[in-house]
Amino acid sequence: MGVLASNDIPGRSLCELCRNAGIRVPEAVAVLGVDNDESECRMSFPTLSSIDIPAEAVGRTAMESLAKLMKGGQPPPAATFLPPVGLIARSSTDWLAPRDPILGKALQIIEEESDRGIGVEAVCESLGVSRRNLERRFRSELGIGVHERIQTVQVARAKRLLLESNLRISEVAERTGFGNLRRFDRVFRQVEGCQPSEYRRLR
């Protein structure tokens, strides 16, 4: 079952209510917000997935319409609808969310810290478990390794920045935790089959 909240604030509140009631999110109910307010989404537990609304484009379109009206133009014959930027997936709708609490916490740490360049050993240290133990849990339930999950999250965020910003490729690499451009190019090509610059041009 899933719930679409009107925006991120009630979405975060719903996650908290579910937690207090012993209802597991997203295993029992997935929660999705609207607006992609980074602070609200990251304060939520689990972190809140949200639909990213093109707020700047909405404001720009409204200003252009108002300017035409002020110059004596006619109002548009119908309402103007702008599509959402996309769905920003976080833990509240993550199909990978496991029943194992250690694994769930590991996924949350990776999601919150991957853009800071967190590595496998740091995840293990935060959880107080051995690398062998954590790798076994990941492989057993998710079929992937810890390092692979970190890279998947990093690449997903990099793709979003490549499409939605004018940041230089080196800045995208820095903001998504890759550390340097060479490593970013190598990992991105392994995951997506093309270089970051090619991905930006193709989209």
Automatic annotation (TrEMBL):
Species annotation: Puniceicoccus vermicola
Xref: InterPro entries:
Homeodomain-like_sf, HTH_AraC, LacI/GalR-like_sensor, Peripla_BP_I, Tscrpt_reg_AraC-type_HTH
Pfam families per the UniProt record, alphabetical: HTH_18, Peripla_BP_3
User: What residues does the HTH araC/xylS-type domain cover?
Assistant: 104-202
A GO term for molecular function: sequence-specific DNA binding
Q: Which UniProt keywords apply?
A: DNA-binding, Transcription, Transcription regulation
Q: From which residue to which does any coiled coil extend?
A: none
SUPFAM superfamilies, A to Z: Homeodomain-like, Periplasmic binding protein-like I
Transmembrane spans:
none
Q: What is this protein called?
A: Helix-turn-helix domain-containing protein
Q: Which domain of life is it from?
A: Bacteria
